[in-house]
Amino acid sequence: MDVLDCIVIGGGPAGLSASLTLGRARRKIALFDDGTNRSRVTQASHGFITQDGIKPKEFKETALKELENYPTVSYFKETVTEIIKASANERFTVKSSTGKELVAEKIVLATGIHERFSIPKIREFYGKSLFSCPFCDGWEQRDKPLVVIAEKEEHILHLTKMVYNWSQDLVALTNGNPLSKEGQLELKKHDIKIITEKIKDLIGNDGYLEKIELENGESIKRSGGFVAPSYYRPNHFAEALGCELDEEGIVKTDHVGRTSQKNVYIAGETERSKPASIMISAAKGNKTAVSVITDIIMERF
Ligand SMILES: Cc1cc2nc3c(=O)[nH]c(=O)nc-3n(C[C@H](O)[C@H](O)[C@H](O)COP(=O)(O)OP(=O)(O)OC[C@H]3O[C@@H](n4cnc5c(N)ncnc54)[C@H](O)[C@@H]3O)c2cc1C
């Protein structure tokens, strides 16, 4: 079987950018992506200079089109189900959901992260009228009547203060969780309404929020807002390959994409298990690809 230089798993901004850099360095690679990128729920992505407001689908299509210029890059729209390493990490067999098996010398994990919401119904509004990142979507929500939903005190305080930069018509909802007197004072001095009552339901149309119903029967009209999900890596590839993790379960790296395991690299949001942006993920993909290429060149020279 032909041995590739590298297999990139995940074709979000991180994996696409890594693939471009690898292709331009004449590396024979395969890119796998199954279309579950985080931004697929949004109408438009903002803040990437020259691409401000681009549709996530268009971003991916343009990137894949650019990769076609590099004949050593192959793209597979498939889910990777398993990565098997040979002893001493010299070879990796990557298996996909269609039964494909490819072998490579190096692996880049760029599979992103997923959100977990304490109120599952948030997902119906997420990306259309509820968002998590004010830098991404604050401008479009500016001056609107917004809600901030977060359960932990540090999260509700931080997110509400941040969102206040874009709209001062704010209601902070803790969904039944307490908020300290000091915390309440901090928000109240800016006329922000704080509600610690449990949320019963979110009501709206086609992803656009109209009101929030509380357990006590009260309802609050809001056109959108910001939420604080928790995040997790969607697979255990890093664990299965033996990558060292820190006490929070984050993959340890040398900050330019190399993990503790020889020939296993990581890029994008999955690297820190934290949300970033398309620009930061793309930059991380580029950095990681540079590490892969440098290692290949030095090892073979
Ligand atoms: C509602 C919302 C709005 C946002 N708005 C903006 C914005 O305006 N501006 C901005 O800069 N950022 C925005 N973001 C954040 C942005 O989407 C992320 O920062 C970015 O997508 C992270 O890139 P990534 O490559 O690390 O991960 P992802 O984009 O999540 O890509 C990971 C890829 O890995 C693939 N994958 C996962 N597992 C497998 C597998 N087993 N086999 C094959 N493929 C696999 C997935 O299909 C996916 O395409 C937004 C996010 C959300 C949720």
So what's the CATH class of the largest domain? Answer: Alpha Beta
User: How many DSSP H or I helices?
Assistant: 9
Fourth-level CATH superfamily of the largest domain: FAD/NAD(P)-binding domain
- The CATH topology of the largest domain comes to FAD/NAD(P)-binding domain
- Strand percentage lies at 25-35%
Task: Give the structure's gist in a few sentences.
Homodimer. The protein is α/β, with parallel strands linked by helices and 301 residues long.
Describe this structure in words.
- This protein has 301 residues and is α/β, with parallel strands linked by helices.
- The protein has 2 domains: 3-113 and 233-300, FAD/NAD(P)-binding domain, CATH 3.50.50.60; 118-227, FAD/NAD(P)-binding domain, CATH 3.50.50.
- 27% of the residues lie in helices and 26% in strands.
- The chain has helices spanning 13-24, 56-67, 122-125, 134-137, 153-163, 181-188, 237-240, 269-272, 278-300, and strands spanning 3-9, 29-32, 73-76, 80-85, 92-96, 101-109, 114-116, 130-131, 146-149, 170-173, 193-195, 199-205, 208-214, 219-221, 224-227, 230-232, 264-266.
- Strands 1, 2, 3, 4, 5, 6 and 17 form a 7-stranded mixed sheet that branches. Strands 8-15-9-10-11 form a 5-stranded parallel sheet.
- Helix 5 links the parallel strand 9 and strand 10 (170-173).
- The radius of gyration is 22 Å and the shape is elongated.
- The relative contact order is 0.19.
- The structure holds flavin-adenine dinucleotide.
